[in-house]
């Protein structure tokens, strides 16, 4: 042997280096098993959290990815697992060791690179969903914890197997765990003193779970609950009655910014804005109750009836037939920027219109939204109001509500839902034949039985249902044809409830004659809350076909031939004032070019028109603009010509609605509300 200049043999230095490496490996071999157990415990804890604290959000794409990707990389190291005999093979050992070590390094590198990205995705979606919807998706926190624990488990296992193959003698590595059970147990005398090694291992076992649990405390404690202000209990004891006459001036004026929709509740008007929903006191316009969900995006109702401000505006509220409940939707986890592709697309809320109390709040897959006096149909599922209990799931019974037909959303029957719509018409070549609907109905008393309605009135422009406070109109002589009526003369019509159409005894139940008409005047019905019938008329607007029987070219002085009140189940006399509004408009107070304006309100059934001065700056256009209906056409006709003023007959007050800023369609608007309270009593 030749010594180097320092007096040390080269092989001696190599042996010292190997000995040092083996020492490090031996120390790691003592630590890694404990760390692996700790990682396994953290994974188990994450799985328990995932199932014990579910948010209800569909997170399959996220929880399926970490096991798939990390498991694939880990499995690659198992397939080419290192063996001591091959590592020490004098002929092929070096090459095999390099290959297997390279696979292990690549697998560990891949896991280390992918894990932060997967965790970041989970936390980003969690933050976005919480911010936009208020839903704390604990599932995503559990997935992030499980991903970190699974990555640590895989890395420690790969390192442990690689180090064992490289550092342990083959005879020790090949011993199986069950061989230890066959060995006689002997008492082992352990040296006294501090049990540092035991404590270290215990710390390594607990460290992953403690660290991950600590990191999860912050997101788990976060919440973004809606801000609620409830009405006092006395609000339910003295509900206002509907006004029976028109006041000469408003009792109150209120500006509503970012308005989306407005409807009549049981205690007064209910207003939906981009910030939330609020119930107004009809006496003074103050806020009775409010529901605010910050940063939420509210969704339009597909297939809903006409907005009070016209067809170009979108409805977001649906009110129960008794006006006690209101339902609406906001964008769900699947509609957030980071959550696209996971989770449900909507959240459905039901509020009590008297108190503002939240009665239902659940995730939804969108679809039609209908409400009765005690339940809602949310997509393909029916829930009980006040409990979120699933009463019926159409998917489980192979029924697809509406199928490919246009869905209907809005007020349903008192205890009946519309699940499909079929459009029919007279079997003739006459291009002027009228179309009508046959509704498929299910009653809450028996969801299994589907009832088909008699020929029912439909909207003019779209083949969809019309339901006003649980009532609709049917044609008396079965299907309307050219032999029993015409567009000029109309057809005999009757008012019926959806409940009676879905009842076995429906034909024996009382029906209310409405006289001759063509269909239901939806804008007038929405404004008054009554079933308003569109008359048959010889005017040019209705002479040709049903599609031309529209308000765009209407020239007759009236668009209503009969008014049926669902609350009293009586026809209202058309020649007597009833507190309902026929037309509303704005005219110059002086000369045609004057900037001073007066709001004019014409009652239904004749009677004196009332008017009052409105403050300068209330209108966007000049007061004489056609956008403000200065000719005082019926509301239905005026809205067809893009009028910016409308009305709502609500408990306690007639509400005049002015789109004061005249924003573009399909955007939140600024409404100025005028409350006319005369003739309203407390019931």
From TrEMBL:
The keyword Transmembrane helix applies. Keywords: Membrane, Transmembrane, Transmembrane helix. It comes from the Bacteria. The chain crosses the membrane at residues 34-54, 60-80, 101-120, 140-160, 199-220. This is Uncharacterized protein.
